[in-house]
Amino acid sequence: MEIEAAFIAVCGPFGAVKEQASGLYAQTMAERGFLTIAFDPSFTGESGGQPRYVASPDINTEDYQAAVDFLSVQDNVDPEKTGIIGICGWGGMAVNAAAIDTRIKATVASTMYDMTRVNANGYFDAENSPEARYEKKKALNAQRIVDYKNGSYTLGGGVADPLPEDAPFFLKDYYDYYKTERGYHARSLNSNGGWNM
């Protein structure tokens, strides 16, 4: 009699590839008896899609559902024991996938801060006013015109290198992982150029 295993699909953080944090989480859960998969989201790492290096909440939520599709049809799994893990910025994608996909029975969002709040209010609520949010929208929309005139998206973000002396603690933590032998990967946007603006 073959044992049917619980399975877990793992993805994240934004800008990372499956060989980094999500692979480590998946390996640890596999060592605990789960069937696991760590995957690169669309447009990133070894996944396909154009343009490269962009995030799309709709498409990236679907990425979790596609991972569940794949794992659900394996012979040695119990489809009633479906779990997902979202790391860092992918925590929100995992929660979103769980909210719409009734096959997902357990969800973990392993994040160090609330990305929705950061996007709305800025880090440490530094942009928590209607005026500040309006200025951010203006800047982002102006960048779209610059990108269009240049004929392509421009890379931005990523982890600063070299790291400024006065960098906040969370940037130092990012640097210690993505820019060192501990977590560096050639395909990782966090290790290299960063996300498109």
List the helices and strands and how they pair.
Layout: E1 5-11, H1 21-31, E2 35-38, H2 57-72, E3 77-87, H3 90-100, E4 106-110, H4 115-121, H5 130-150, H6 169-178
Parallel strand pairs: 1-2, 1-3, 3-4
Helix pairs in contact: 2-3
Folded structure, characterized:
The protein is an alpha/beta fold and 197 residues long. It has a domain of 113 residues: 3-Layer(aba) Sandwich (Rossmann fold), CATH 3.40.50. The protein is 39% helix and 14% strand. It has a four-stranded parallel β-sheet, sandwiched between helices. Strand 3, helix 3 and strand 4 form a beta-alpha-beta unit. Helix 2 crosses helix 3. The longest helix has 21 residues. It is globular. It starts with a strand and ends in a 19-residue tail after the last helix.
Residue windows where pLDDT falls under 50 for at least 5 positions: none
Give the tally of β-strands.
Answer: 4
N-to-C CA distance: 53 Å
SSE order, one letter for each helix or strand: EHEHEHEHHH
Please summarize the sheet with the most strands: 4 strands, parallel
CATH architecture of the domain at 5-117: 3-Layer(aba) Sandwich
Approximate helicity band: 25-40%
Q: What is the fold-level CATH name, i.e. the topology of the domain at 5-117?
A: Rossmann fold
Net shape: globular
Query: Beta-sheet strand percentage?
Result: 5-15%
Name the descriptors.
197 residues; alpha/beta; Rossmann fold; four-stranded parallel beta sheet; 6 helices
Overview in brief:
The protein has 197 residues and is of the alpha/beta class. The protein contains six helices and four strands.
